[in-house]
C-alpha cells in the first residue's frame, strides 16, 4: 500500500456474481477501496474448483476474488434471503450476473430492493440484456463471441482458415465487467449530485460489439472486392516470429530506414498509403524474405531502435517477467490456502489515489460470523440460520 486514499473507500458492495464478468467488475471496485461482500452458495461458486488447483485452492478463483469478504448462503432458504435484505439495506452497490429473471424470482430484483435502499446502485450483467427476445438465453463468453460476430471477424483476418478458433480467453467477460465498473462509477457520480439510485443493465453482446469498430463499418459498407491486408502481422524469422505494425507514415519510413530500403519511399508501388495497401503482398514478401535469415532478437532490436512498432511473440509467463511490469509494480503476489501466485493490479494509475489489487483470498464462508454480527445477528441467530439453510 502506498498510503494514498482509495476513491471508493467507505462504499459497500453486495456481490452475487460468479465466474468472470461480475467478479471482474467487483474486483475493480475492491481494488479502489470498496468493501465487497461476496455471496456464494454453500458449496462455493463454480470457479472454486477450476484449475490450476494448488492444495485444494483455485488460482483462477483467487485471481478474480482477492480482497473480498465471503459468506455462503442458500438463496432458496427464506432465512438466507432475510440476511441478504439486511445486507442490501446497508449497501451502496449490488452486482449480479444471473440469467435475467432469477433475481426477481428471489424477490431481489431492483424494484423490490430499492424500497430497502432507495439510493442503491444495482448492476446486472447478462449475455444479451435484461429484456428482449434473447434475454433468457444462457450465455458464457465463448457463446457471446460467436453470437456477436467477434469470432467470425477474427477469422476474416486469418488467411486460409475456415473454422473459427476455440479459445478460453474471456474477452466478452472482461470487457463487460469493465464497462459495468464504469457505469457504476457514473451512477455514483450522479447519486452524489441527486441522491438517486440507478438500475444498470450491461449486455455482454453489446460490450463485445464495441471492440469491433472496423468490422461494424465493413459490415455496413462492404468493399466491391476484398481489401488487401495492411502491412502488419507475424513475420517469420530464422528462429521464430516477430509481430510488426507500421501503421503510420512515420512508422513505414522507419521500417524502410531500418531495412536499408529507403528506395521504398519513392517507389510508386509503396510511396503512398493507398499504393502501399494495394501492393501489400509484394511488400510483405520482401520483408518476409529479409527476415527469414535473421534471428528474432536481432530483428526486434533493429526495428525497435528505429521506432518500428514490433514485438517478438511471448508467452504470458514471459510477459509477467517483463522489467517494465516490475518498474510499474504491476504484478501482485496473491495469497490463499494453497499458497501464493501472481496476478496483476488494475492497468491504470491515478496520481493522488490508489487502485491496487488486494492480495488475500477468503475461503468459503470465511467471513460469515463477522458479516452476520454487523447486521445484528447473535450467535444463536447464526446457529438457527445455519440449521435453516443447511442442505436437505
Distance between the termini: 44 Å
Helices, by number, come to 18
Rg for CA atoms: 25 Å
Helix content: 25-40%
CATH fold call of the largest domain? Rossmann fold
Largest sheet: 6 strands, parallel
**Kindly state the mean pLDDT as a whole number?**
94
Secondary structure category: alpha/beta
Based on Cα principal axes, name the global outline: elongated
Write structural notes for this entry:
This protein has 392 residues and is α/β, with parallel strands linked by helices. It folds into two domains: 12-212 and 328-388, Crotonobetainyl-coa:carnitine coa-transferase, domain 1 (Rossmann fold, 3-Layer(aba) Sandwich); 233-315, 2-Layer Sandwich (formyl-coa transferase, domain 3), CATH 3.30.1540.10. It has 18 helices and 13 strands. The strands form four sheets. Strands 5-2-1-6-7-8 form a six-stranded parallel β-sheet, with helices on both faces. β1 (12-15), α1 and β2 form a beta-alpha-beta unit. α1 (21-31) crosses α8 (171-194). The radius of gyration is 25 Å and the shape is elongated. The chain starts with 11 loop residues before the first strand and ends with a helix. The mean pLDDT is 94.
Amino acid at each position: 500500500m502506498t498510503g494514498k486514499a482509495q476513491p471508493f473507500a467507505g462504499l459497500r458492495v453486495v456481490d452475487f456474481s460468479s465466474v468472470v464478468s461480475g467478479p471482474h467488475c467487483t474486483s475493480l471496485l475492491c481494488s479502489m477501496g470498496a468493501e465487497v461482500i461476496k455471496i456464494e452458495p454453500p458449496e462455493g461458486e463454480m470457479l472454486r474448483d477450476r484449475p490450476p488447483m494448488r492444495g485444494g485452492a483455485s488460482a483462477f478463483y483467487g485471481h478474480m476474488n482477492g480482497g473480498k469478504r465471503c459468506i455462503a448462503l442458500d438463496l432458496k432458504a427464506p432465512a438466507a434471503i432475510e440476511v441478504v435484505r439486511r445486507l442490501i439495506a446497508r449497501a451502496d452497490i449490488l452486482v449480479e450476473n444471473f440469467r435475467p429473471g432469477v433475481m426477481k424470482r428471489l424477490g431481489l430484483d431492483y424494484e423490490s430492493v430499492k424500497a430497502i435502499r432507495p439510493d442503491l446502485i444495482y448492476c446486472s450483467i447478462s449475455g444479451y440484456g435484461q429484456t428482449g427476445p434473447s434475454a433468457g438465453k444462457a450465455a458464457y463468453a465463448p457463446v457471446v463471441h460467436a453470437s456477436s460476430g467477434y469470432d467470425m471477424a477474427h477469422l476474416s483476418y486469418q488467411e486460409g482458415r475456415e473454422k473459427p478458433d476455440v479459445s478460453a480467453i474471456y474477452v466478452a467477460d472482461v470487457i463487460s465487467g469493465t464497462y459495468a465498473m464504469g457505469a457504476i462509477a457514473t451512477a455514483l457520480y450522479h447519486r452524489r449530485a441527486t441522491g438517486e439510485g440507478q438500475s444498470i443493465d450491461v449486455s455482454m453482446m453489446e460490450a463485445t460489439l464495441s471492440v469491433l469498430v472496423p468490422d461494424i463499418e465493413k459490415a455496413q459498407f462492404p468493399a466491391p472486392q476484398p481489401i488487401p491486408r495492411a502491412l502488419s502481422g507475424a513475420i517469420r524469422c530464422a528462429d521464430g516470429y516477430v509481430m510488426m505494425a507500421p501503421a503510420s507514415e512515420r512508422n513505414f519510413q522507419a521500417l524502410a530506414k531500418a531495412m536499408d530500403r529507403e528506395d521504398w519511399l519513392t517507389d510508386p508501388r509503396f510511396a503512398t498509403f493507398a499504393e502501399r495497401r494495394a501492393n501489400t503482398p509484394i511488400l510483405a514478401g520482401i520483408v518476409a524474405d529479409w527476415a527469414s535469415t535473421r534471428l528474432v532478437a536481432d530483428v526486434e532490436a533493429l526495428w525497435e531502435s528505429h521506432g518500428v512498432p514490433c514485438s517478438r511473440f511471448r508467452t504470458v509467463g514471459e510477459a509477467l517477467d517483463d522489467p517494465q511490469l516490475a518498474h510499474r509494480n504491476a504484478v501482485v503476489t496473491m495469497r490463499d490456502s494453497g499458497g501464493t501466485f501472481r496476478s496483476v493490479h488494475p492497468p491504470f494509475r491515478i496520481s493522488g489515489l490508489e487502485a491496487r489489487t488486494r492480495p488475500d483470498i477468503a475461503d468459503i464462508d470465511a467471513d460469515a460470523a463477522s458479516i452476520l454480527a454487523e447486521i445484528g445477528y447473535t450467535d444463536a441467530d447464526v446457529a438457527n440460520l445455519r440449521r435453516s439453510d443447511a442442505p436437505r
